[in-house]
Amino acid sequence: MAVKRLDNVGIVVEDLDVAIAFFLELGLALECRMPIEGEWAGRVTGVRDQRVEIAMMRTPDGHSRIELSRFNAPAIASDHRTAPVNSLGYLRVMFTVEDIEDTLVRLEKLGASVVDEVVDYENTYRLCYIRGPEGILIGLAEELGQQASE
């Protein structure tokens, strides 16, 4: 077996504090916040002379993380935050939540909005996509029926 686990998904943001608040409200925990810079970092990413502040957000089960990054240097190269879901590349992260309606109420207070509507999928899941701060696209899923009680 080559892969041991999915370690994290990275999201670049302009306002790290706002993004942290959003993911805290969603239910993730702030694991650490720190600067990343130096010659070694550029050799990993291919972006030389980078100065980045990151915040590592951990899911409640401890198995997954979101790495939020704010680049102080160099300047942002491109912006894909409002790309539609049928665009090429990485676009969203999906979270399973206990109560999708409660989650939406809490996140809407922080500026989140449902992309279209909340739908039921075969009496198995309630699903929706939302746009959070800076247009970050995330999916929400609530398990229905037997799966939710197991």
List the helices and strands and how they pair.
Elements: E1 9-12, H1 16-26, E2 29-37, H2 39-45, E3 51-58, E4 65-73, E5 92-96, H3 100-108, E6 113-114, E7 119-121, E8 125-131, E9 137-143, H4 146-149
Question: Which key terms come to mind for this protein?
Answer:
single chain; 150 residues; alpha+beta; 2,3-Dihydroxybiphenyl 1,2-Dioxygenase, domain 1; 5-stranded mixed beta sheet; 21% helix; 36% strand; globular
CATH level-two architecture of the largest domain:
Roll
CATH superfamily membership of the largest domain, which one? 2,3-Dihydroxybiphenyl 1,2-Dioxygenase, domain 1
pLDDT average, as an integer? 91
Number of helices: 4
Distance between the termini: 29 Å
Which sequence of SSEs, written as H and E, runs from N to C? EHEHEEEHEEEEH
SS class: alpha+beta
CATH class of the largest domain: Alpha Beta
- What name does the CATH topology of the largest domain carry? 2,3-Dihydroxybiphenyl 1,2-Dioxygenase, domain 1
Concise description?
The chain is of the alpha+beta class and 150 residues long. It has helices spanning 16-26, 39-45, 100-108, 146-149, and strands at 9-12, 29-37, 51-58, 65-73, 92-96, 113-114, 119-121, 125-131, 137-143. It has four helices and nine strands.
